[in-house]
C-alpha cells in the first residue's frame, strides 16, 4: 500500500487558479477557489502531518498549455498527488472559432501529458476532474454545440482516468443536481466559472471521492 500523499498539486485553468498570487504570500498563494477550500480543510484536519499544497492553475490555459509548462510547474515540485481540471478553454476557443481553436487538440494533448507524467514520475497519484458547464451566460447562445462538445471531452477524460489508473471525480452530474436548489447562474455565474457556492460544491465532491479512494490524504 502506498503512503498517503504529502505533497498535493492542483493544476488547471482559471477555475483552479482562483486569483492566486504569483509570490510566496501564504494568504493568497492558493487562490480563493476549490483548491483553497480543499487545502484549508485538509491542512487544518491534518495539521500534525503538515501536508504541502500547491496551486499552479493558470487562467486561460488549455490542455496543450498545461503540457508546455509541465516541467516547471509540475515535475519540479515533486508532487505525490496531482489533481487536474482542464477543458473549458479548449471548448471555448473551439466554439468561438478563435484562431487557436480551429484544431481541437484537447484529447491528444491531455493524453500526451499523462503518458509523460507516468514515465517521469510513475508513482505519483493522479486525480482527473470532469470538466463541466451549465446553460447560462457564455454557453447560452450555442448551447447544443457546447453540450455536445463537452460531453465528448467528459467521455475522453473518463476513459483516460481509467487507462492511466487515475481517480475520476465526476462533476457535471453534481452541478446538474444542484439546479434543483438554485438556477444555473447561482453555481456557474457565466455557465463556466463557479461562484463561491460553486467552488464549495466542487470541493465537497472532490473530498467525497478522493478521500474514499486509494489516494486518500490522511
In short:
This protein is an alpha/beta fold.
Descriptive account of the structure:
It is a single chain. The radius of gyration is 16 Å and the shape is globular. The two termini are 13 Å apart. The chain has 218 residues and is an alpha/beta fold. The longest helix has 21 residues, at 143-163. A five-stranded parallel beta sheet has the order 2-1-3-4-5, with helices on both faces. It contains ten helices and five strands, in the order βααβααβααβαβααα. α2 packs across α10 (196-210) and α6 (106-120) packs parallel to α7. This is SGNH/GDSL hydrolase family protein. Residues 12-201 form the SGNH hydrolase-type esterase domain. It holds the Pfam family Lipase_GDSL_2.
The N- to C-terminal Cα distance equals 13 Å
Uncertain residue ranges: none
Q: How is the biggest beta sheet arranged?
A: 5 strands, parallel
Helix content: 40-55%
* Number of continuous helical runs: 10
The backbone outline, from C-alpha atoms, is globular
Helix- and strand-based class? alpha/beta
Number of strands: 5
Order of helices and strands: EHHEHHEHHEHEHHH
β-strand percent reads 5-15%
Q: What strand order characterises the main sheet?
A: 2-1-3-4-5
Overall pLDDT level: 94
- Radius of gyration, in Å, reads 16 Å
List keywords for this structure.
alpha/beta; 218 residues; 5-stranded parallel β-sheet; 5 strands; 10 helices; globular; 44% helix
Note the topology.
Blueprint: E1 7-12, H1 14-17, H2 34-45, E2 52-55, H3 63-68, H4 70-73, E3 81-85, H5 88-95, H6 106-120, E4 125-129, H7 143-163, E5 167-169, H8 172-178, H9 184-187, H10 196-210
Parallel strand pairs: 1-2, 1-3, 3-4, 4-5
Helix pairs in contact: 2-10, 5-7, 6-7
Amino acid at each position: 500500500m502506498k503512503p498517503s500523499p504529502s505533497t498535493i498539486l492542483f493544476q488547471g485553468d482559471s477555475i483552479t487558479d482562483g486569483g492566486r498570487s504569483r509570490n510566496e504570500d501564504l494568504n493568497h498563494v492558493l487562490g480563493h477557489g476549490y483548491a483553497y477550500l480543499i487545502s484549508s480543510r485538509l491542512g487544518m484536519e491534518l495539521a500534525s502531518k503538515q501536508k504541502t499544497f500547491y496551486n499552479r492553475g493558470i487562467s486561460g490555459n488549455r490542455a496543450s498549455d498545461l503540457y508546455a509548462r509541465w516541467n516547471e510547474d509540475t515535475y519540479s515540485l515533486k508532487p505525490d498527488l496531482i489533481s487536474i481540471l482542464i477543458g473549458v478553454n479548449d471548448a471555448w476557443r473551439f466554439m468561438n472559432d478563435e484562431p487557436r481553436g480551429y484544431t481541437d487538440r484537447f484529447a491528444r494533448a491531455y493524453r500526451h501529458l499523462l503518458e509523460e507524467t507516468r514515465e517521469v514520475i510513475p508513482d505519483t497519484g493522479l486525480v482527473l476532474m470532469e470538466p463541466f458547464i451549465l446553460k447560462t451566460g457564455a454557453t447560452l447562445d450555442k448551447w447544443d454545440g457546447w453540450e455536445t462538445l463537452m460531453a465528448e471531452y467528459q467521455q475522453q477524460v473518463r476513459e483516460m482516468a481509467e487507462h492511466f489508473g487515475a481517480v475520476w471525480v465526476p462533476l457535471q452530474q453534481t452541478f446538474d443536481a444542484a439546479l434543483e436548489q438554485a438556477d444555473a447562474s447561482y453555481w456557474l455565474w457565466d455557465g463556466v466559472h463557479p461562484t463561491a457556492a460553486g467552488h464549495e460544491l466542487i470541493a465537497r465532491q472532490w473530498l467525497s471521492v478522493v478521500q474514499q479512494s486509494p489516494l486518500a490524504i490522511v
